[in-house]
């Protein structure tokens, strides 16, 4: 069987385009994920870099929970000081889920429960915002 | 020139892989963006669907500001009620920026200023969290 270079090129482009579309879809949390779970932690010892880093390391273990579409861990950014900005927290985690059921599965997942058990002595306050995405890119 | 089916398949897979890698990089805001700007709004008329939709439409205009790497607009999700969850807000926006300078450029951008001017009569309270990403996918 003979196949021309042009036919091969067309097949490669087709293969490439298909892969690009599907991977772009998978890589953008906002495209399919419909739920954002944003948690803020205030440490018992806010001045302790050791406690902060231990909490950050604990949060990093959560990435192995399969239902999490995207996970970011952060600290207050050095943006301009304004009355409307709350920069009093110490550590924050931001996660994307596809739906409510996946978020519930995350809450009950053994890795999440192990994280709470090993790190809850570090924080004095937790505040959670759950957001259903209604528009975006 | 003759090319075997196996060779063609290999070329397609190669083309596919290359496209997938480059598009994954471009499509994930968290990979390159280092700053999350999360804003919560409490409406003056929390029961008004008209006011809520007007605010959501106003927020949607922000997507044309070039420094925004990713923008999601949302409302409180119907997750389990828990003491640590604040679901009292009406509308929220979540944005990714590459750095502090881009976030400042957004604050000063004419489209942002026009949004504030046209929508600020709708809200009674705004609360902002700015997060510097220190770990994540």
Question: Can you give a write-up of this model?
Answer:
The structure is a homodimer of 137-residue chains. With 137 residues, chain A is of the alpha+beta class. Chain A has 2 domains: 1-29; 35-132, 2-Layer Sandwich (Alpha-Beta Plaits), CATH 3.30.70.100. Helices cover 42% and strands 27% of the residues of chain A. The first copy, chain A, has helices at residues 5-27, 29-32, 49-60, 100-108, 110-119; strands at residues 35-43, 70-76, 91-97, 123-136. Chain A has a 4-stranded antiparallel beta sheet with strand order 2-3-1-4. In chain A, 33% of the residues are buried. The model of chain A is unreliable at 7-30 (pLDDT under 50).
């Amino acid at each position: 069987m003979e196949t021309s270079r042009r036919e091969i090129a067309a097949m490669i482009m087709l293969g490439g385009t298909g892969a690009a579309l599907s991977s772009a879809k998978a890589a953008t949390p906002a495209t399919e994920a419909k739920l954002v779970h944003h948690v803020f932690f205030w440490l018992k010892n806010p001045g302790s870099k050791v406690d902060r880093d231990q909490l950050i390391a604990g949060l990093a273990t959560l990435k192995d929970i399969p239902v999490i579409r995207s996970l970011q861990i952060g600290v207050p950014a050095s943006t301009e000081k304004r009355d409307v900005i709350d920069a009093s927290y110490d550590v924050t985690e931001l996660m994307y889920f596809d739906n409510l059921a996946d978020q519930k599965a995350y809450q009950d997942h053994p890795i999440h429960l192990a994280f709470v058990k090993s790190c809850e002595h570090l924080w004095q306050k937790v505040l959670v915002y759950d957001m259903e995405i209604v528009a975006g890119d």
